[in-house]
Amino acid sequence: MAHDQLSPALARRVALAAQGFGASTTTPVGTRRLTGMIGRLGLLQIDSVNVFERSHYLPLFARLGEYDRAHLDRLTLDGPGRYIEYWAHEAALVPITTWPLFRWRMADHRRRALADDDSWSSANPRLARWLLDLVRDGGPVPASLVEHESNVRTGPWWGWGSVKQGLEALFRVGDLVSAGRRRFERVYALPEQVLPRELLDLDVSRHEAHRRLLTQAAAAQGVATTSDLADYHRLKTADVVPALRELHDEGVLAPVEVSGWGRPAWLHRDARRPRRVGADALLSPFDPVVWTRPRAERVFGFRYRIEIYTPLEKRIHGYYVLPVLQDDLLVARVDLKSDRQSSVLRVQAAWRERDLEVDCDRLAALLRRAARWQGLEAVEVMHRGDLAAELRRAVG
Question: 3-class DSSP state for residue 216?
């Protein structure tokens, strides 16, 4: 059977339209538009790096323009509500209705932990029971407020003490859930303290959960390979292939070929095929458009590696580098820092991508909007990078 053919340019536009690009960014952004976009994406990946802005705020700014971050906090981080955290792609905010779809993952974590004598769960059953009793009796709590002799950090800022390790271990297996964040620190609760009874009682089989997660990933990506679809929620091929076969038989997904991709792909039945995508966006390193690095390279020809953990002398592009999307191409990358003390958005480096044309006036306007959104008064472009001089002139 002959498969539908998509050109690489059309595949890019399909992927970006599925991700919510091309919509108006001029109308006010309230609850309806925020929740609608999160629903389209399915999740917001969380990361603690705050040199420019925390990553979960950035995909919405990229797609909707300026919005009130405090409004998003009230929806997602201020306590039980529409969203909850779990390990979806990585640590991510997901709609509470998605949480039951990861019960199989919680069960897998539990099985592996109990089978490993060196795991925290196997080595600390008494502390585990004590932590669960603490939350049951005292209500939701962050790790920093747990008074226990073992609640001592074991290293620098990323070193976790046994209490934090235990709360995370219980969170992974679903014995604890997130009840929001305080000053960006996760608050832990029992599921029954946060989730409605109908979700607690919902029993979704492993296979059905994979069908639903793959359907969500396919709708969010528009056109994607099997590995792209699996990686959206970090699923395993053995679980993915049977579910994909069923979704194909039901007409949810159709096989397609994209020139240059070198592997078969799937097109979601509702995917739009726009003639043009008008976009001006700074993409978080953890934006779904680029978080699967092989997909970013295949779809956009954009080789991307985050260099936060790379020693300074070995970095190529910078510390917190964001790809620049103009229409349907990733044309540049900028290393950004919000200097809040000086009220300046610093472009510490700016690089053009291969021989692609960059509209520096558009990029300068986007950086000014980003600065305004951050509450900063100015944009300053430093000298590093082959796009820096031209961008400095455009910024003025």
Answer: helix
CA distances from 366 to 65, 133, 384, 387 (A): 9, 50, 19, 15
The one-letter code for the residue type at 172 is R
Q: Could you count the other beta carbons within 10 Å of the beta carbon of residue 339?
A: 15
Q: How far is CA 238 from CA 92, 230, 244, 246, in A?
A: 24, 10, 11, 14
Q: Which of 96, 64, 120 is nearest to 179 (CA)?
A: 96
The CA distance from 2 to 184, in Å, is: 51
Characterize the bridge pairing of strands 177-182 and 185-189: antiparallel
Distance CA 386, CA 383 (A): 9
Structure tokens at 45: 């990946």
Task: Note whether 49 and 308 are within 8 A (CB).
Answer: yes
pLDDT in tens, 342-363: 999 999 999 999 999 999 999 9
pLDDT at position 151 over 70: no
| Angle between helix 125-138 and helix 162-172 axes, rounded to 10 deg | 80
Alpha helices by DSSP H, 116-161:
120-123, 125-138
Looking at the chain, which runs of residues are DSSP E strands?
4-6, 44-45, 83-87, 91-95, 141-142, 177-182, 185-189, 223-224, 253-258, 265-268, 280-282, 321-326, 329-339, 344-352, 378-384
Q: Where residue 178 falls among pLDDT bands split at 50, 70, 90? A: very high
| Prediction pTM value | 0.93
Neighbouring residues of 157: CB distance < 8 A, sequence distance ≥ 6: none
d(CA 324, CA 296): 13
Is 282 in contact with 58 (CB distance < 8 Å)? yes
Which among 217, 248, 255 has a CA at the least distance from the CA of 234?
A: 217
Maximum separation of any 2 CA atoms in the chain, in Å: 66
Question: What pLDDT score was predicted for residue 155?
Answer: 52
